[in-house]
Prior knowledge:
The protein is mainly α and 200 residues long. The chain has helices at residues 5-33, 36-43, 47-53, 57-76, 86-102, 105-116, 122-148, 157-173, 177-192. The chain is elongated, with a radius of gyration of 20 Å.
Amino acid sequence: MPLSEQQILNMKKKRETILEAATSLFATEGYEATTIKKISEAANVSFGSVFTYFKDKEELFYTAVVEPLKELSDRILDFNPDPMDPVAELEKMIAVHIKLFAGINQYLTLVVQVVGQHQRYADIFEKLDTFHDEFLEKVSILIQNGQKKGLLIQQEPLPVATLYTSLLIGIRLNNTDTLYSNMLDHYVPAALQLFGPKNK
């Protein structure tokens, strides 16, 4: 007998609950200290229920990092690399990115774990690296267009784009939630200076 829509919805919700609990534990306790037992307890489901949705802890960690990447990448890459006003586009892009990164602190902690042990998590790292390259390329094009229009100082776009992505991760991970939220508006003009606007 096929599952009803309600049963499918319930299963989807349970899977999301398990994944959220796993993400939180991986972020706060690390991969090694996180167990399926801890995840099941945090998600308030039975130990066996976890295996209905995920083969093992390794698959859970993979899913916790890779699954959100598609939606996040769409939102992060949602800027125009060839606008009429590159400086205004940079300001808008930075404001969007800083607010977006404000809500993904735990996810960024997982990303840092993967990057720090990229040989261990080679499959996950490859997917993150592919997105990172795409992000760097698009930001670099925006920088180049700003330079062509004489609105940005001449400098190598790729190192600037790389520093920008590092800045986004760094300011999120190095601040408490309260401090980060209080400083959001101040970060935008400071981050803009990285790109070398001539009239700011």
